[in-house]
Design goal:
2 domains, single chain, alpha/beta, 372 residues
Length: 372
């Protein structure tokens, strides 16, 4: 019996300090650390973002973690460390000299503020604002959270879908109001794609020098100096219009390979433009799906940028060749020679439909050679 009691006492003596150490509160910072942190907190409290900062006594020194399944009443604050939220925090979370990381399953009902750190939403949720500031003592600015996982994929897909909708709306407007100009650019791009591409690349290289030359030319006279701002705006709008028209033409050309011929020219143009735009947006959608893969996402973005640049360059060159759609591309088609006995009339008479000239029909001959 005595041996059993001695073993129990020894077990408590060994395990007791570890349990007490695990349950004890974090070690408070030294006086020097508190004195260095206090002015920083006071300067941040003077900004709108730092008004909710708790007192220095509420800060935990070092990393702080909220375990999964645990609910903590806010505010939760850590100095010189990160705050990892895996459970529920009813209130605000602050980190000074570290990051606020909200993991999957974690939730912060209030705001998240990181001074000299970042707010990272790694599958969790923050109900309030997310703010971050790089330097100590500087005004805290609103920062975009660094999304990961499915949240990052959805964010990238929303951006791609938004651009797709914008391009489709612009394209439909161009077809309705400037369908003839778009068709002229499409013809130029289909007939001379290589030439249009090199013309577009040359236009990109010479866009800025041409603008500088235009400004220098206007600066010769006093009236021209006053017109320089308007000339710059008009130049930028003209270039943007040509790029837009060329890009839509490139999308239409890509859609022509899929869309079949139709009786209604405008409906076919709309279908071709929509189909081609979706085809050109496929690399961007693939890039959005691979946003969580460093190498795969980078490769997909490179391919998407390259395809978009080639299409836009060729379209810009075609728009310049067609003079913004004003100049029509005439196709030389050979004509079959008309038969001598075609539709004709001896004398042109207005208002009378031409009739075929009657021709003599041979009559059968009699056996003795006389005609009946």
């Amino acid at each position: 019996m005595r041996r059993v009691l001695m073993a129990a006492v020894a077990l408590v003596a060994i395990d007791g300090p570890s349990r007490v150490h695990a349950q004890q509160a974090p070690v408070p910072p030294s006086a020097a650390a508190r004195d260095s942190l206090a002015p920083i907190l006071d300067s941040v409290r003077a900004t709108p973002a730092g008004r909710a900062l708790p007192s220095i006594d509420r800060f935990t020194w070092g990393d702080l973690s909220i375990p999964a399944g645990e609910t903590v009443a806010g505010p939760v604050a850590a100095a010189r460390g990160n705050v990892n939220v895996r459970g529920l925090v009813n209130g605000d979370v602050f980190a000074v000299g570290g990051d606020v990381v909200v993991h999957a399953g974690g939730e912060v009902t209030g705001s998240a503020l990181a001074l000299q750190g970042k707010v990272i939403v790694n599958g969790g949720r923050v109900g309030g604002e997310m703010r971050a500031a790089a330097p100590f003592g500087a005004a805290a600015e609103k920062a975009e959270p660094r999304l990961t996982g499915s949240a990052a994929v959805m964010h990238a897909l929303k951006i791609s879908a938004g651009w797709l909708v914008v391009v489709l709306l612009v394209g439909l407007g161009v077809i309705v109001f400037s369908g003839a100009q778009l068709e002229a650019v499409v013809q130029a791009l289909e007939n001379r794609f290589s030439t249009a591409f090199f013309v577009g690349v040359a236009a990109q290289i010479g866009a800025v020098p041409l603008l500088v030359l235009l400004c220098l030319t206007l600066a010769i006279t006093i009236v021209g100096i006053l017109l320089i701002p308007f000339a710059i705006v008009a130049y930028i709008l003209g270039v943007a219009g040509l790029i837009t028209l060329g890009a839509l033409a490139a999308a239409s050309v890509a859609g022509h390979a899929v869309v079949r011929e139709g009786r209604n020219v405008r409906v076919r143009a709309m279908r071709s433009m929509v189909t081609g735009t979706v085809l050109l947006m496929l690399p961007w959608l693939a890039s959005a799906l691979l946003v969580n893969s460093p190498w795969g996402g980078m490769l997909a973005r490179i391919v998407a940028v390259a395809i978009t640049w080639v299409a836009a360059s060729a379209g810009l060159g075609a728009a310049l060749m067609a003079r913004g759609g004003v100049r029509r591309v005439h196709l030389h088609v050979g004509h079959a020679p008309a038969s001598p006995a075609g539709w004709q009339t001896p004398t042109p008479i207005g208002g009378i439909v031409a009739a075929r000239r009657p021709t003599a029909t041979p009559t059968p001959s009699s056996p003795n050679g006389a005609a009946h």
